[in-house]
Design brief:
Layout lengths: L1 E5 L9 E4 L9 E11 L1 H7 L13 E2 L4 E8 L11 E4 L12 E5 L3 E3 L6 H5 L2 H14 L7 E4 L5 H12 L3 E6 L4 H7 L3 E4 L5 H4 L3 E6 L3 H7 L3 E9 L6 H6 L4 H20 L3 E4 L6 H12 L7 E6 L3 H9 L6 E5 L2
Parallel strand pairs: 9-10, 9-12, 10-11, 12-13, 13-14, 15-16
Antiparallel strand pairs: 1-2, 1-4, 3-5, 3-7, 3-16, 5-6, 6-8
Helix pairs in contact: 3-4
Length: 333
């Protein structure tokens, strides 16, 4: 089968099209013919080796973290899926590889595709929708009447998180550029801060939750808009000791994460708030719940551009510009 593979981190080729073997199935695996794959910023970071201590992939490996497609075969113990089913997924972090014609996915990480979406639309959702769900439902337990700030509202995670937070009954604020004001308002944002003309930290206050995909100074400034007891959830880092425990990291890696997160953790404690790092995990059951929300009209995907599979490298380069509204997708011929 055709697939885009990584042979070496930060190589001049970066990502190359190659012929590789169709994956073999374990008893709980499902073989999916990929019809479309979402393209995410994390793909570029993995390509460049930024996650090699956390995600030690064996070279060469196939890149890609989102998919929608059709089941073609199932392992002997699979009961939830049969050939012909239309599905979507974010494979487990140790089994990525959606920039390919086929992939083997454990059945627990797979869900039936929202029936109202095209393959390209469905492929745009798993990673960003799971991130929003695990941040707002699992981690923050957002309830009606709370105030939620979602940074970078026109991005992939932002477009999903605004809609989910609104569905959960929150008052939703977001930051975006002037060109995207109408987009985020249409997704349900109650308060929109144009970061080119306003400083969110001076106009927002008493928020219960901040979801931050930017990190750095933006994350530290976000602590100031939280009410006492509020929480900032970062998906761009810094990783913290709790995350190290979650992935069973070595003592050295846990120490490194403790050092990396010390500054923001200290600032959070001084302000009477908290910070936690979220690294989204695969979850077929959650994707099933998200699919129901999509089919009920609660969440809609935002797709900026669809590239042909052969142009996967160009699609990733476009994502790296940071100008995409919502998601970028590659689609099989």
């Amino acid at each position: 089968m055709k697939a885009f593979v990584i042979d070496r981190y930060k190589s001049k080729d970066g990502l190359r099209l190659a012929d590789v073997a169709v994956p073999e199935l374990a008893e709980h695996d499902v073989l999916v013919k990929i019809m479309a794959a979402g393209v995410n910023p994390i793909d570029a970071k993995i390509r460049d080796g930024e996650f090699k201590l956390i995600l030690p992939y064996r070279m060469p490996f196939v890149l890609g973290n989102d998919l929608a497609g059709v089941v073609t075969d199932v392992g002997s113990a699979v009961r939830r899926f049969t050939p012909g089913d239309e599905v979507y997924a974010r494979p487990d972090k140790d089994r990525i590889g959606t920039f390919a014609e086929f992939i083997a996915v454990h059945e627990r990480d797979l869900a039936h595709k929202p029936r109202t979406l095209s393959m390209a639309e469905a492929a745009s959702l798993p990673m960003v929708a799971l991130t929003a769900w695990q941040a707002l439902v699992e981690r923050a337990n957002v309830t009606p009447g709370q105030k939620v700030l979602v940074h970078a509202g026109s991005g992939g995670v932002g477009t999903a998180a605004i809609q989910l937070a609104k569905h959960l009954g929150a008052t939703v604020a977001t930051t975006t550029s002037t060109a995207n004001l109408d987009l985020v308002k249409g997704l349900g944002a109650d308060v929109v801060v144009d970061y080119k003309n306003e400083d969110f930290a001076t106009v927002l206050s008493d928020y219960d939750v901040v979801l931050d995909p930017l990190g750095g100074a933006n994350l530290e400034k976000s602590l100031r808009v939280l009410r006492p007891g509020g929480t900032a959830i970062g998906i761009a880092g810094p990783p913290d000791p709790e995350f190290a425990d979650e992935i069973g990291a070595s003592w050295f890696l846990k120490l490194a994460m403790t050092v990396l997160s010390r500054r923001v953790k200290r600032k959070a404690r001084r302000g009477g708030v908290s910070y936690s790092f979220l690294f989204m995990r695969a979850g077929g059951d959650q994707l099933g719940q998200i699919a129901a929300l999509v089919d009920d009209g609660v969440i809609r995907p935002v797709v900026d551009r669809v590239f042909p599979f052969e142009s996967t490298r160009e699609a990733l380069a476009y994502v790296e510009t940071g100008r995409a509204k919502g998601k970028v997708v590659v689609q099989m011929s």
